[in-house]
Amino acid sequence: MAQQLRVLQSLWAMERRLADEGEWPLHTQLAMIRDAGFDGAGVRFIDPAFAREVTSFLRAHGMIWQAQCYPRTVDDLKPVLELVARLGADHVNLQPDVRPRRLADCIPLLEGWRQLAAEAGVAVHVETHRDRMTTDLFFMLDLLDCFPDLRLTADLSHYLVGREFAWPVDDVNHAMIHRILDNAWGLHGRIASREQVQISLGFPQHQGWVSLFMGWWDYAIRSWRKRAGPDATLTFLCELGPPPYAITGPDGRELSDRWQDALVMKDMIRALWDRIANEPQDLLPR
């Protein structure tokens, strides 16, 4: 069995948040994800009933899911792992919902979560995200000095907009992003500019940013293929969030179609994977 890519769609990204129209029913959202050819979904494992309903549908259709959680303490992860033991998951995506200013305050949390994950035999990836322990790129790099084998979910949109990298991105900033990606065991798909955390893939003025992220994801895939086992699976979650992530006009409606952008992103990342998978192995990072 060869290494595989699985492209998922975020259920949060299926929210419409329109003042004059209702949300799509959950079954409609899941059917859309299935019929569009996604391999699975990102599912909040906070509400057991919700997680049970969603994973039942996904399992019945041969799809996979990542279990998303937002612990503030070590013990907060325990019920999530217990739910994963019952419902399964490709991995747990952990957003550490704390904001320590000192590395020393992060260490017992990360050690505790890693110990619980090891005891449960569940893969846990720590997500890079604003307003979390991982909010700042420099602080995150210091955390990697403390935990060189820490498994990350890399959502690079937060670091580009958080650090407001100058354009074009220079080699120093590329090197810092590459170090994050060398610890990435999953990817979240959102394209940012240096001022906006989420922009449409289709607008002509955004194509430089699209190329930047495709280059980073190219590096991420190559790095992961070098580190991962021969039958491992890499997940890429399309996570184009609803307003206020999505930019809206004066009528409150979005300026682009996030669902169509997600479909385009799915095809782009699969094409990138296929191109890399068909290259000679000596082109992968060493």
Automatic annotation (TrEMBL):
It comes from the Bacteria. InterPro entries: Xyl_isomerase-like_sf (IPR036237). SUPFAM superfamilies: Xylose isomerase-like. This is Xylose isomerase.
